[in-house]
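User: Let's play a game. I give you a shape written as tokens, and you guess the letters that built it. Ready? Here's round one.
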């Protein structure tokens, strides 16, 4: 998968509020499908579909613990998305800083008189 495809998959997975809520839950530790289903008004198969999207995007992984298959959050793809967003945050920060400088210069200039001199 190319970097652009990874970003596309990450942002597509994050676009859904249920998947974001699942990630929020997994940020506090591993959980099984049954445990992840509890706070939602959804069936286990519906939650499993969300988990598959998150796993394909590389945002979570599945471990094997005897009969239990807990999901856990993976930080690499979120880190890639954060780095991509950081570039744009820095760009806009520089733009706003330049605008602040310009406004400061304009405020420092004395106002021009509007009267005509004869």
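Assistant: Ready! My guess for every position:
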């Amino acid at each position: 998968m190319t970097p652009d495809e990874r970003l596309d998959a990450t942002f597509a997975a994050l676009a859904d509020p249920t998947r974001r809520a699942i990630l929020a839950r997994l940020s506090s530790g591993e959980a099984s499908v049954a445990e992840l289903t509890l706070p939602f008004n959804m069936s286990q198969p519906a939650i499993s579909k969300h988990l598959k999207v998150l796993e394909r995007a590389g945002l979570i992984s599945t471990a094997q613990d005897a009969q239990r298959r807990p999901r856990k959050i993976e930080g690499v793809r979120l880190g890639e998305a954060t780095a991509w967003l950081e570039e744009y945050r820095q760009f806009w920060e520089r733009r706003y800083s330049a605008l602040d400088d310009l406004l400061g210069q304009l405020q420092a200039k004395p106002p021009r008189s509007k009267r005509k001199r004869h």
